[in-house]
Amino acid sequence: MSEHTADDRLALFVEGEALIAIELEDLLTAEGFVCFSASDSHAVEALPLDNLSVAVVDLGLHGRIEGQSIVRLLRKRIRHLPVVVVTGYDLQQPEADLRGLGGPQPASASLPTRATSGTRCGT
């Protein structure tokens, strides 16, 4: 957990894969966020979440669909927190269904349904 002041923008990222977690932290830090990380719901529950600006949550953690319960927990504790969901699931798979988790719904069915191979955020 990083040290921070009251003026800092705080970001939580929840990712079970170490290399992806490192990349997420690098991207968020480059955008000016002070980062907190967690790899499962137990770690999220232990964090002070009240002043978060954004959360990035992977739906599939350690082979389970634990990300959905983490989004529910975040929405319960901070109702209007922006949550970015990261997943390798196709949008048509039930595991990628975010209905009932709160927050905005997908803007359009015309949005891309899967990432292009080799695409990297932030470049």
Automatic annotation (TrEMBL):
Region (Disordered): 96-123
Biased segments, Polar residues type: 107-123
Top-level taxon of origin: Bacteria
Protein name: Response regulator
Species assigned in the record: Paracraurococcus lichenis
